[in-house]
């Protein structure tokens, strides 16, 4: 069985649940940014939850099924068109041979996950089929014309479900939980208070490596009539920090006082102090945050 990428959209990557446990050799875990969405898609099809699927950024993708297949699309809120017929996301759908699936632009969230019964079957690298964009490990980003093999159907039948409760990506202020970081004492107490009390905006510089955050600017700052406010995360210790291990969720603060939340494809070491660490249960939310969207940190 196979499927063909007709149009990949802005960025289409093959992702599973990653390759954890290899930081000692300089390899981050990588894997789907929205792990819950990938797991849901696989469960809807009777797959093992770690089967590889396709992560689409901002939709606009078209896929053709070369043989009959079951599939599901989860994650961002998108319209789905199967040979001119609208189909529902977060549901197991059957496609006939030659059927074409079109994934629209998201109205909430940014990343959609296409899973197929049997999983996308490409050669694993270090035990995972995930693409790591920082280290360039794993299968290359998908391009128009790529044909992907599909694995054998699992023994378990496609589950019969009438309704699947799904928490859709939020389009307002998103609250995430974060623990006090190992270098929190490098910051002034006012910086710790500001980190948790203020709202932050997701920068357009964000990607799978990290989510860059900006302090929310007043209207005058946005219009350029007043200078941008000074950084709110001021350090108490100004000396240079030797590089130390990093994990997904670590919130590094660069010298300009702006925080960056490290995500799946993060470097395994870093030299900026970590003011906080996002709780694992909150990490998936960063997969669906749009540039300009606001978030607020809360004590974990």
UniProtKB/TrEMBL annotation:
Residues 24-300 form the Carboxyltransferase domain. This is Allophanate hydrolase. Coiled coil: none annotated. It comes from the Bacteria. Keywords: ATP-binding, Hydrolase, Nucleotide-binding. InterPro entries: CT_A_B, Cyclophilin-like_dom_sf, PxpC. NCBIfam families: urea_amlyse_rel. PANTHER family: 5-OXOPROLINASE SUBUNIT C. GO terms for molecular function: ATP binding; hydrolase activity.
């Amino acid at each position: 069985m196979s499927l063909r990428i007709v149009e990949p959209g802005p960025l289409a990557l093959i992702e599973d649940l990653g390759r954890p446990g290899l930081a000692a050799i300089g390899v981050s875990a990588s894997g789907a940014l929205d792990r819950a969405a990938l797991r849901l898609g696989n469960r809807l099809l009777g797959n093992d939850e770690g089967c590889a699927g396709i992560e689409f950024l901002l939709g606009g993708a078209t896929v053709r099924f070369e043989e009959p297949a079951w599939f599901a699309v989860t994650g961002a809120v998108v319209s789905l068109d199967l040979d001119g017929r609208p189909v529902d996301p977060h549901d197991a759908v059957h496609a006939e041979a030659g059927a074409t699936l079109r994934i629209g632009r998201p109205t909430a969230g940014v990343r959609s996950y296409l899973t197929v019964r049997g999983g996308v079957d490409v050669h694993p690298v270090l035990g995972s089929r995930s693409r790591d964009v920082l280290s360039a490990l794993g299968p290359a980003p998908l391009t128009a014309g790529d044909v992907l093999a599909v694995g054998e159907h699992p023994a378990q039948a496609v589950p019969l479900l009438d309704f699947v409760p799904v928490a859709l990506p939020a389009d307002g202020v998103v609250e995430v939980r974060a623990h006090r970081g190992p270098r929190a004492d490098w910051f002034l107490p006012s910086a710790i208070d500001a980190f948790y009390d203020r709202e932050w905006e997701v920068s357009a510089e964000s990607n799978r490596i990290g989510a860059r955050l900006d302090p929310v600017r007043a209207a005058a700052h946005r219009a350029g009539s007043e200078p941008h406010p000074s950084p709110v995360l001021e350090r108490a210790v100004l000396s240079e920090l030797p590089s130390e291990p990093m994990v997904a969720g670590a919130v590094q603060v660069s010298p300009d006082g702006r925080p960056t939340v490290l995500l799946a494809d993060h470097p395994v070491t870093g030299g900026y102090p970590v003011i906080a660490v996002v709780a694992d249960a909150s990490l998936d939310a960063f997969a669906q945050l749009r540039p300009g969207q606001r978030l607020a940190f809360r004590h974990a």
